[in-house]
């Protein structure tokens, strides 16, 4: 008989045992930060992803907003803790606080706005320089529904992304185009099994838990 | 496990191991037919092991299965359920500390042995890695660790019950003692008897105790005679032997109990073999190896029916000086007392140190250590108490009455050996249970007649598990936290404790899945205390349906500063939660939280919406490092919002300018400069960001000034103390700010009070040399300061104005624009007396300084100290000023003024009085105060004062005339009479000794008075009468009294004092007259009651007088009788005549004539001769022949001092006047005299003087 006393996993990245004890889903928790020029649609993108909503006149974000969303990839439950930073220049100083320790970042630009693309490039540079080396960066060209009046060409952005090892998609928060896909792509790219992507402490604890489980199993025989 | 399977009882009985054949032979049972099910014999092979029984969480629980312990198959034996079997109770532990379990396997075997082979009930037990049980019919059952019966042994020698059992330390040998004295050694492996010792102890006694010592082949045995024997086992040439030696004889006090100290080899004491012994009156600590020696003994008192109890335990002792030692501790108990002693080696000697004393409620049966921290005591009502030794507190108690404890009374009473024990031991043995309670480690075994029970002390972990199992989460959490805190600074144990708490948390999660809110608080507290916040944010949070309780708990912890961070998810929920309930509370929480865990977008928007300005400021400054936007956003709101915002902003500005962050802490060093600059820039910006077309300049500063000018200026002046505002640049900053302030505060849109604040502020700045004086500014300031009148100016504002001006003057800031004279004029005009005074002082124009003080209401007190200070300096002209302002000074403080004048200018009082002459009121005040200061007034002054008093304060006249003596009485009297102040007049009359007038006036006055006043006054009149008695003749007095009484008696309102008055008067007047008066004046109802006392006192007085008379007579008679008796006794005294001849005629004395003995000298004369001699002397005196008369003769004549004519020896006076003639029988007298003479002759030479002294007074003898 399986142990019933032990249910639920540990903190981030630990395993959970379902009551039936056969199927074991992994639980992953990732910190994701959205960066980009103001009014490129960061908040809209997140809102679309988390709540499936879109507001034509989205209020501008102050400081940073926090949201969570959980998705399933194969047998892994991925929980995103999303920090949607404010794009205004005055909040720039806050950004390091949020991308420090983040496992993933989405840099957003507006395809109608060349400046926002340039700003995105600076963000990418800053991330490469300051953020954790394993960070997964995605570049999102937002407002793709308005591609008829685009300024930033798809190819240009694509090329830039490839050069810098970024995930790239053109998205539209309004239509929902590519929104889930870009998050899924990030989730897939994020490492889920080894402890490398996580901080040291939770990984160590998980190993212990595995040991315990094994012992318990032996005892039950 | 097959090899462990115990042989069945049958096989044991049939085997040749042990000696059970006789038992089999006598057994009436058909062993073959024994049916386990029918007789409820548990299947012995499947019993849980002892170890598992001791370590599993609960007997009969299914937790055992979780631990992988194979569960026992259900047994038909009804288990002694915990709830039904014992009543749990007790103090702190809540029943979680002690664990009770019944040893089912052992109990079943005991019962079956008793039932089937007639083994009798259990009487003794021994517990080591094996369990041994002895029975009343001499059977010994030996069980192994799994409670399996290994062998049984039956005594064949008819030695009665097994009274003591003991395993040796390595558990290879079992010693068993019997009630009739046999000691048997058995091999524990096989059950074979190795030694039978029939004569090891005193013959005809039973074994009470058997104990192995720390030496392998040495055991101790005590018998019911109270002796202790050492048993040394030998094996010489393969033959087992035993030598027994008596260590203590019971003749000198019977040893009731003994306890060897078993010690591991690492301790200093291991070279010794130590035992503790206790008799009914003492206890001893004794070494028996290497040699027998008593280390210590001590008296042990207690109730007669209580046995002493002993127990050893190795304890880690931490001394006061933090040294630690691991030493044996002995607990000695008797009655309800427990004493703890530490045994240790010091300088090569073994010493015993008293540690502590514990007093229990009831008397004790036994004491056993359960681990080094607790002691278990069974009391006489069979309740087991668990005592924590360090705190001396009872942790828990458990009622063991159901265990059916076996008592060893039979052994102590020696029933098996004919009862040959001392009565004391037999009485004490009533409660003996030494061999039925055994401890091992933290377990205590309790032997019942048919069962064996175990009590174990749970460890911390086990207690938590127990509480968890019973769903007592609150207690479990508290206990867990206690344990966690107790680990203090030991990291390894802390980690273990933490792990246990995490386990507890998981158990909680599993157990409370259906009611996730249940006992949430303690769990949250646990997690926060151990710092496992991740669990709190994820696992606990996610499973909750209703989050509000959780949020409440978290809020509590935030408010108590236990946590400063929460996860963003929780913080979002927290903000939403409190926004609904109380936004104010939310603000408090936000201020306490680390901003990095907050969703800034959410919080800032909420703060704006709900006007949480402080939170807004906090987040703007901390998170965004934006110090100016709070100002630009909030200052415009100041006017519409409640004052809280304005005040918060002022605090914020002040702290920013001082380099502190809001609401607490410091601004990081690298930011301070920027922040200060930015805040200042923002405050002094000419236009706001959202510049409205017709905006007035400096909107921010203006709004703040409008909100509260004074406080804003205070903030600025505080800021000016920072280093940024010092130095050349700083001063220019100041200048700029002040200019801005002046620009903002124009009379058109601000009140004068506010401008006053500003100008005072500027004046301060100028006088502190912080601002370049600038003529224009100064004039502006001075203009304000010197304003003659400002409408609605409060006292505070005025004094601020004055002090600002004063500051300016002190620092000579006004020199450039005006002169002191000018200033003086201005100050006078503006009523700034303080300034005026300062200027006068400066100009040395002292004449008017006092006037400044006088004009300034606040400084009246200082005026007097000023005058006091300078009174000695003539140039200050103090006196002149006093004279000038004397009247006002008297009005202000007459007392102080008078004191000053009296003290320093007493010579000039008359002058001052003159000054006051026309103002009678002031004069009166001055004179009055002079009088109160005991200043001696002249007669005129007194008269004047009296006159004024009569005029203005007639009620004080009376007091004055009584106190003062200086006035002339006649004048005063006429004055007083003129003002009809009768009381004073009466006093003055009396002072004049004019009692008649005084009395008449009094009586008149009394007639006008009524009620209480009349009564009091009547009393005064009577006092006056009493005083008059001493002066006036009696008749006058009587007249007074009668007049008074005539007045008083008829009046109804004076009835209360009538009696007293009558009583008083009766001392001074004739009583009969008084009675008559009373009878006559009692006009209406001649009440007998009123005069009753009077009559009574008359009667009693008369009786008293009669008594006195009688007594006097008696005394007189007594005196007379005494005098007579004295005379008579004198007369009766014998006389000694030393001469044979008359001293005058020189003839023989005894010649039939009367003789006169002169006494004293012993000479005698004839009566006739004496007469003649007398006449001769008299005639000689009469003839005036004075020259011939000797002095003695003169004396004789005068009859005062009479001398003997022969020797001139002095005689008693009045001799000639009081001659007593006695008629005595001649013969007798002569015989007497002759006898006396003879004696005298014989002794004359020897003691003439002595004889002379014995002479009697002169006496005359008459011969008839």
UniProtKB/TrEMBL annotation, chain A:
One of its GO terms (molecular function) is GTP binding. Transmembrane segments: none annotated. Keywords: Endosome, GTP-binding, Hydrolase, Lipoprotein, Nucleotide-binding, Prenylation, Protein transport, Transport. It catalyses: GTP + H2O = GDP + phosphate + H(+). Gene3D superfamilies: P-loop containing nucleotide triphosphate hydrolases (3.40.50.300). One of its GO terms (cellular component) is early endosome. InterPro entries: P-loop_NTPase, Small_GTP-bd, Small_GTPase. Pfam families: Ras. SUPFAM superfamilies: P-loop containing nucleoside triphosphate hydrolases (SSF52540). Its main location: other. Residues 1-23, 194-221 are annotated as: Disordered. Its EC number is 3.6.5.2. It is found in: Early endosome. One of its GO terms (biological process) is protein transport. PROSITE patterns: RAB, RAS, RHO. NCBIfam families: small_GTP (TIGR00231). Belongs to the small GTPase superfamily. Rab family. PANTHER family: PTHR47978. This is small monomeric GTPase. It comes from Bactrocera dorsalis. The gene is RAB5B.
TrEMBL record, chain B:
Residues 1142-1208 form the RING-type domain. SUPFAM superfamilies: RING/U-box, WD40 repeat-like. Residues 1-20, 63-88 are annotated as: Disordered. PROSITE patterns: ZF_RING_2. The keyword Aminoacyl-tRNA synthetase does not apply. It comes from the Eukaryota. The keyword Disulfide bond does not apply. Keywords: Metal-binding, Zinc, Zinc-finger. SMART domains: RING. InterPro entries: Vps41/Vps8, Vps8_central_dom, WD40/YVTN_repeat-like_dom_sf, WD40_repeat_dom_sf, Znf_RING, Znf_RING/FYVE/PHD. Belongs to the VPS8 family. This is Vacuolar protein sorting-associated protein 8 homolog. It comes from Bactrocera dorsalis. The lineage of its organism: Eukaryota, Metazoa, Ecdysozoa, Arthropoda, Hexapoda.
């Amino acid at each position: 008989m399986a142990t019933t006393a032990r249910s639920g996993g540990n903190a981030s990245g630990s395993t959970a045992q379902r009551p039936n004890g056969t199927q074991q889903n992994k639980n992953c928790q990732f910190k994701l930060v959205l960066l980009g020029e103001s009014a490129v649609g960061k908040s809209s993108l997140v809102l679309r992803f988390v709540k499936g909503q879109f507001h034509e006149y989205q209020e501008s974000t102050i400081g940073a907003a926090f949201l969570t969303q959980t998705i399933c990839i194969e047998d892994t439950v991925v929980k995103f803790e999303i920090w949607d930073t404010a794009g205004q220049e005055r909040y720039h100083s806050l950004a390091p606080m949020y991308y420090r320790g983040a496992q993933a970042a989405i840099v957003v630009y507006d395809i109608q706005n060349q400046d926002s693309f340039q700003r995105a490039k600076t963000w990418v540079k800053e991330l490469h320089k300051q953020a954790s080396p394993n960070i997964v960066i995605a570049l999102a060209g937002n407002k793709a529904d308005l591609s008829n009046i685009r300024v930033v060409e798809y190819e240009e952005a694509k090329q830039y992304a490839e050069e810098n090892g970024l995930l790239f998609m053109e998205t539209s928060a309004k239509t929902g185009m590519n929104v889930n896909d870009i998050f899924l792509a990030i989730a897939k790219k994020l490492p889920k099994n080894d402890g490398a992507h996580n901080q040291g402490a939770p990984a160590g604890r998980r190993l212990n838990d595995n040991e315990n489980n094994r012992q318990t199993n032996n005892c039950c025989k | 496990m097959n090899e462990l399977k115990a042989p069945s009882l049958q096989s044991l009985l049939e085997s040749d191991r042990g000696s059970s054949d006789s038992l089999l032979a006598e057994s009436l049972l058909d062993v073959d037919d024994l049916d386990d099910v029918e007789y409820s014999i548990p299947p012995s092979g499947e019993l849980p092991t002892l170890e598992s029984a001791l370590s599993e969480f609960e007997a009969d629980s299914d937790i055992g299965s979780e631990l992988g312990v194979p569960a026992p198959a259900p047994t038909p034996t009804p288990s002694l359920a915990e709830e039904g079997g014992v009543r749990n109770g007790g103090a702190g532990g809540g029943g979680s500390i002690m664990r009770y379990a019944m040893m089912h396997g052992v109990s079943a075997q005991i019962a079956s042995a008793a039932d089937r082979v007639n083994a009798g009930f259990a009487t003794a037990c021994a517990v080591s890695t094996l369990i041994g049980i002895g029975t009343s019919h001499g059977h010994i059952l030996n069980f192994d660790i799994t409670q399996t019966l290994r062998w049984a042994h039956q005594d064949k020698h008819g030695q009665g019950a097994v009274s003591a059992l003991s395993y040796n330390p390595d558990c290879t040998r079992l010693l068993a003692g019997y009630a009739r004295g046999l000691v048997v050694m058995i091999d524990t492996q096989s059950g074979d008897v190795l030694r039978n010792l029939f004569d090891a102890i005193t013959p005809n006694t039973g074994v009470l105790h058997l104990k192995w010592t720390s030496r392998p082949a040495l055991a101790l045995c005590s018998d019911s005679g109270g002796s202790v024997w050492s048993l040394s086992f030998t094996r010489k040439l393969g033959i087992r032997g035993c030598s027994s030696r008596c260590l203590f004889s019971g003749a000198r006090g019977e040893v009731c109990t003994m306890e060897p100290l078993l010690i591991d080899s690492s301790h200093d004491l291991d070279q010794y073999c130590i035992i503790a012994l206790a008799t009914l009156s003492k206890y001893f600590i004794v070494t028996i190896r290497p040699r027998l020696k008593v280390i210590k003994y001590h008296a042990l008192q207690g109730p007669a029916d209580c046995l002493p109890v002993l127990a050893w335990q190795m304890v880690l002792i931490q001394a006061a000086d933090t040294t630690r030692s691991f030493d044996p501790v002995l607990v000695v108990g008797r009655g309800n007392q427990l004493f703890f002693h530490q045994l240790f080696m010091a300088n090569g000697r073994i010493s015993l140190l008293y540690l502590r004393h514990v007093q229990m409620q009831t008397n004790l049966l036994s004491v056993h250590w359960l681990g080094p921290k607790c002691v278990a005591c069974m009391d006489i009502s069979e309740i087991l108490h668990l005592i924590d030794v360090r705190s001396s507190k009872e942790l828990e108690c458990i009622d063991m009455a159901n265990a059916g404890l076996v008592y060893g009374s039979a052994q102590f009473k020696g029933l098996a050996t004919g009862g040959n024990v001392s009565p004391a031991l037999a009485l004490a043995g009533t409660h003996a249970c030494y061999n039925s309670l055994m401890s091992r480690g933290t377990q205590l075994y309790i032997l019942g007649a048919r069962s064996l029970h175990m009590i174990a002390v749970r460890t911390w972990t086990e207690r938590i598990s127990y509480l968890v199992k019973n769903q007592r989460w609150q207690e479990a959490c508290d206990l867990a936290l206690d344990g966690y805190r107790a680990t203090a600074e030991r990291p390894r144990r802390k980690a273990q404790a933490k792990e246990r708490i995490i386990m507890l948390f998981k158990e909680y999660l599993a157990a409370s899945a259906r009611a996730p809110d249940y006992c949430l608080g303690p769990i949250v507290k646990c997690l926060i205390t151990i710092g496992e916040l991740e669990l709190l944010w994820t696992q606990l949070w996610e499973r909750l349906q209703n989050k509000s309780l959780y949020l409440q708990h978290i809020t509590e912890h935030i408010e108590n500063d236990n946590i400063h961070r929460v996860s963003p998810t929780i913080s979002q929920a927290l903000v939403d939660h409190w926004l609904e309930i109380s936004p104010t509370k939310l603000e408090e929480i936000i201020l306490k939280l680390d901003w990095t865990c907050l969703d800034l977008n959410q919080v800032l928007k909420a703060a704006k919406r709900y006007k949480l300005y402080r939170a807004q400021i906090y987040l703007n400054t901390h998170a965004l490092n934006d110090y100016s936007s709070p100002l630009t956003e909030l200052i415009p709101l100041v006017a519409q919002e409640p004052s809280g915002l304005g005040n918060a902003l002022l605090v914020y500005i002040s702290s920013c300018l001082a380099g502190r962050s809001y609401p607490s802490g410091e601004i990081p060093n690298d930011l301070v400069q920027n922040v200060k600059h930015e805040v200042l820039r923002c405050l002094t910006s000419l236009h706001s960001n959202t510049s409205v077309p017709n905006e007035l300049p400096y909107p921010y500063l203006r709004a703040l000034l409008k909100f509260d000018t004074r406080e804003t200026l205070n903030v600025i002046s505080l800021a000016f103390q920072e280093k940024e505002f010092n130095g050349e640049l700083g001063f220019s900053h100041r200048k700029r700010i002040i200019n801005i302030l002046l620009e903002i505060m124009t009379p058109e849109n601000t009140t004068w009070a506010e401008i006053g604040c500003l100008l005072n502020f500027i004046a301060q700045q100028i006088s502190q040399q912080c601002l370049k004086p600038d003529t224009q500014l100064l004039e502006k300031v001075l203009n304000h300061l010197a304003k003659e009148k400002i409408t609605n100016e409060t006292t505070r504002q005025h004094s601020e104005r004055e002090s600002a001006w004063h500051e300016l003057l002190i620092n000579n800031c006004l020199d450039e624009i005006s002169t002191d004279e000018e200033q003086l004029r201005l100050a006078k005009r503006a009523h700034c007396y303080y300034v005026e005074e300062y200027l006068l002082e400066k100009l040395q124009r002292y004449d008017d300084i006092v006037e400044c003080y006088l004009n300034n209401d606040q400084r009246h007190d200082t005026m007097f100290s000023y005058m006091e200070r300078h009174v000695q300096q003539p140039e200050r002209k103090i006196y002149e000023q006093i004279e000038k302002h004397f009247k006002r000074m008297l009005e202000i403080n007459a007392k102080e003024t008078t004191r000053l004048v009296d003290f320093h200018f007493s010579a000039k009082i008359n002058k001052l009085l003159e000054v006051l002459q026309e103002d009678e009121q002031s004069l009166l005040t001055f004179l009055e105060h002079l009088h109160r200061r005991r200043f001696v007034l002249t007669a005129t002054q007194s008269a004047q004062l009296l006159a004024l008093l009569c005029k203005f304060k007639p009620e004080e006249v009376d007091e004055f005339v009584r106190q003062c003596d200086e006035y002339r009485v006649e004048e005063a009297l006429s004055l007083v009479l003129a003002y009809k102040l009768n009381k004073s007049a009466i006093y003055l009359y009396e002072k004049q000794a004019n009692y008649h007038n005084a009395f008449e006036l009094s009586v008149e006055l009394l007639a006008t008075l009524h009620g209480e006043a009349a009564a009091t006054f009547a009393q005064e009149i009577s006092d006056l009468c009493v005083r008059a008695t001493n002066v006036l003749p009696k008749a006058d007095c009587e007249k007074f009294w009668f007049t008074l009484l005539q007045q008083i008696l008829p009046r109804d309102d004076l009835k209360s004092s009538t009696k007293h008055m009558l009583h008083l008067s009766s001392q001074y007047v004739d009583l009969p007259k008084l009675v008559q008066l009373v009878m006559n004046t009692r006009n209406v109802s001649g009440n007998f009651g009123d005069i009753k006392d009077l009559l009574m006192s008359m009667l009693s007085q008369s009786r008293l007088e009669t008594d006195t008379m009688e007594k006097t007579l008696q005394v007189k008679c007594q005196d007379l009788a005494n005098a007579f008796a004295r005379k008579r006794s004198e007369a009766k005294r014998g006389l000694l005549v030393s001469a044979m001849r008359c001293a005058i005629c020189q003839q023989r004395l005894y010649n039939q004539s009367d003789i006169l003995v002169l006494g004293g000298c012993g000479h005698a004369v004839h009566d006739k001769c004496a007469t003649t001699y007398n006449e001769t002397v008299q005639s000689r005196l009469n003839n005036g022949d004075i020259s011939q008369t000797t002095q003695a003769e003169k004396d004789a004549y005068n009859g005062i001092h009479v001398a003997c004519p022969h020797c001139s020896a002095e005689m008693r006076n009045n001799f000639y006047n009081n001659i007593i003639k006695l008629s005595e029988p001649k013969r007798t007298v002569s015989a007497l005299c002759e006898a006396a003479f003879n004696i005298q002759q014989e002794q004359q030479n020897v003691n003439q003087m002595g004889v002379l002294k014995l002479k009697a007074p002169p006496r005359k003898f008459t011969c008839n």
